[in-house]
Amino acid sequence: MAGGFGGGGAATGRAELYEGKITGYFILACIVGSFGGSLFGYDLGVSSGVTSMDDFLKKFFPDVYQRKQAHLHETDYCKYDNQVLTLFTSSLYFAGLVSTFGASYVTKRHGRRASIMVGATSFFLGGAINAAAMNIAMLIVGRVLLGVGIGFGNQAVPLYLSEIAPYRIRGAVNQLFQLTTCLGILVADVINYFTDRLHPWGWRLSLGLAMGPATAIFVGALFLPETPNSLVERGHLEEAPPQFEDLKEASEAARAVKGTFRNLLATRNRPQLIIGALGIPAFQQLSGMNSILFYSPVIFQSLGFGNSAALYSSIITGSMLVVGALVSMVTVDRLGRRFLFIEAGVQMIASMVVVAVILALKFGHGEDLTKGVSTVLVVAICLFVVAYGWSWGPLGWLVPSELFPLEMRSAGQSVVVCVNLFWTAAVAQCFLAALCHLRWGVFVLFASLIVVMSIFVILLLPETKQVPIEEIWMLFDRHWYWKRIVRKDPKYPGNLHEQQEMARA
User: Fewer CB within 10 A of the end CB, N or C, for the chain?
Assistant: First the structure.
C-alpha cells in the first residue's frame, strides 16, 4: 500500500521496500471505496435528463415547458435559458463547495472511511427529499443535501484510493473513482430513458433511485479498512503497515504543522498549490465537459432532436465516458499522465472546433438540422467526451491526490474539491445563458481554454507515473521551473535532507 510523503523529508528512498500485495480484501476495499464516484456520476446523469422531461418542467418550470413546446422541432439556442432551472443543477455544487471544509475536518480527525459514510447518508436524504418534492424549495433543499454528500465523497474517496493502492498501480486504482462516476452517469441516462415514459411521476423515480447507491456505499463502508496514512495520522501506530517508518516521520511532521490550510501558501508547497489545488480542478470544469454532461439532453433537443432521441444520445455520450475511463485505467501507469493530458487536449480542441464551425454555418435559423449534419455533431461530441474520459476526467482527481504531503493532504484535497465544485457550479449556472448569447461562440471559448490547459500541463506538470507518493516531492526538486522556487524555502524537504547529510558528515 502507498503511504504519505511528508513535508519533513519522510521520503528517503525506502518506498520500494514496502510495495503492497493485491489481496481479495484489497480488491473489495477498492470496489466499495470507488463506488463513492457513483454518487457524483448518478447525479450528473440524472439531473441532466430530468431537466428535459416534460412532466418535470410542467410541474416546476411551466414557462420553460411552454417555450420548449413552441420550438419543439426547431433549433433554438435559448430554448432552456432559465436561471431558476439552472439553479436546480448548480445549487448542489455550491453546497458541495461549502461542505468540503467540514469534510476536511472529518477526514483528518476521524478517517477517510467516516467521510465516505457521512457523504452516503447525506446523499440518501437528498434523494428522498427530491423524489417527494412538491415545490421548488423542496427541490433545492434536496439538492443541497446531495451536494453535502458529494462534497464529503469527493474529498475522501480519491484520498482513500491513492493511499490504499500499491504505488505501481496507484493510477489505475485511483481511476476506479472516475470509472464508477462514468458508470453512474450511464446508468442514470438509461434510467431517464425509461422513466421519461412513466407519466407523470417518472422523474420522481429517477431522482429517488439516488438512494440506492448511497445505501450500498454506506453499508459497504462499514466493512472498509482505514488507510495506513489515516491510522498513523490519528495515532493508531500499532495498526500501521510495513511502511511504518516513512509514515511515522510524515505523521510527526504533520503534527508539528499548525494551520494546515495556511501551510498551503508556503513557498515549498507552491507547486502543489498551483497545479493540484488551483489549476487542475479549475481546468477540469473549464474544459466544457460538464456542460455537456449537465445538459446533453437539453443540447440535443436545442439542436432539433426529439425528446427520446435526446435522451438516447445522452446514453451514447455516457457510454463514451465509460470507454474513456477504461482506456485510461489500462494506459495511465504505462503511457503516463502527461501523455494522456496532451493527446486528449489535441483531440478535444479539434472536436470543439468542428462543433463550432457546423453550428456557425448550419444552426440557429429555426430549421431542422439534416441527418448528416446531426450525425457529424454527435460524432464530434462523442470524440470530445471519450478524450475527456481518458484524460481530464480521471486525471483531474488522480494527479492532485498524488501531490500533497501528509501534513496538508486533507486540507489540500478540500481545496481541490472546493475549486472543482466552484467552477462546476459556475459553469452549470452560466452555460445555458452563454449558449443563448454566445451561440456557437461558446464552443470556441471552450476550445481556447483547452489550449491554455494543455500549455499549462506541458510547462508545469512533472510526470508522476509509478513514483511512490512518498517521493513525489523530489520531482519538483528536479523540475526546470519549480526547483527555482521550492529551494528558496529553508523548510523544503530537499534542503532539510541536505542539512541532515551535512550534520552526519
Answer: C
